[in-house]
Amino acid sequence: MLNIYQKFGGTVFKIEEFDIKLDTEVIGRNFIYSDEVESTNSVLLNSKEFNQHGTVLLGEFQTKGRGRKERSWVSNAGQNLTFSILIKDDLKEHKINLVNLGSSLVVAQALENLFQLNIELKWPNDVLVEKKKIAGILLESTSKGSKINRVVIGIGINVNQPNFPGKFDIQPTSVRKEFKELVSRERLLSEILNLFEDMLETWKKEPKKILNDWRNRCKMIGERIKIIDGEKQKSGVFNDIDEDGFLVLKIADKLEKIHFGDVSLR
Questions:
Q1: What percentage of the chain has pLDDT greater than the value 70?
Q2: 258 φ, ψ (degrees, to nearest 5)
Q3: Which residues contact 49 (CB under 8 A, 6 or more apart)?
Q4: Domains of the chain (ranges, CATH numbers)
Q5: Which H/E stretch holds residue 234?
Q6: What's the sign of the alpha-carbon dihedral 91, 96, 100, 102?
Q7: Which of 9, 28, 41, 152 is the most buried (most CB within 10 A)?
Q8: Which residues does 248 contact at the CB level (< 8 Å), separation at least 6?
Q9: What's the CA angle centered on 97, arms 22 and 106, to 5 degrees?
Q10: For the residues 191-207, what does the mean pLDDT come to?
Q11: 21 φ/ψ angles, rounded to the nearest 5 degrees
Q12: Which residues contact 21 (CB under 8 A, 6 or more apart)?
């Protein structure tokens, strides 16, 4: 396995150290490392060259990194993890949105396993530590006709970034800030991919487990919330998530399914 010794503003990503800890059959076995890329999600969604199920693309710096609603995601090169995972198998029979929830569970579990951080999840795709955002997930797909043929899960984790200048809707943090020391990005990535492969099996065989595990990590269920989607705003009680992983909002005596939106406590 190749070692990368190119210098960035942060530490070097050591492929050998990552590979030693990787314990998967498929996920990450086709591994692409790039010092700069427009967007890891865009590459895996559109590439004819990199189209194998389980491919992982790690980009040290994304010139057009993005989160939900095309919001930019800025990450210091060499300090964090910004990567995408391509899945192509078993897309027809299963609920794709549960992979979004399952991915946030995977990140939460990896951070707890390695660094004993107290993680909670915020619908639809934020991973929080003490109400501060440490990671985000963006699931995107392509289709031919009515058939989904590629799903890409983009994951951005603040790992060793020491500070976050600027104003944010949710204050960001990093593993380094919470754990009080520099940590191994290689170990964290391998742990996430190991857990991700296990999660895909759960998604296929026990989708209700993903829903229940996610519910247990979300502190907002039962609280009064506000949801903003563009110019639209709704308020009510976060009643639950449904079997597809969408938010169920209770307004007076009525229940409404919410597919998109930014959620905050009222």
A1: 91
A2: -115, 125
A3: none
A4: 15-217 (3.30.930.10), 224-265 (2.30.30.100)
A5: strand 232-241
A6: negative
A7: 41
A8: 238, 239, 240, 241, 242, 255, 256, 257, 258
A9: 30
A10: 97
A11: -90, -10
A12: 186, 187, 190, 191, 194
Mean pLDDT for all residues in the chain = 90
- Return the amino acid letter for 192: I
What does the pLDDT look like over 154-188, one tens digit per residue? Answer: 999 999 999 998 888 899 999 999 999 999 999 99
pLDDT tens sequence across 110-149: 999 999 999 999 999 999 999 999 999 999 999 888 888 9
pLDDT at 4: 36
Radius of gyration of the chain (CA): 18
Do 246 and 238 form a contact (C-beta atoms < 8 A)? no
Indicate whether 15 pLDDT > 80: yes
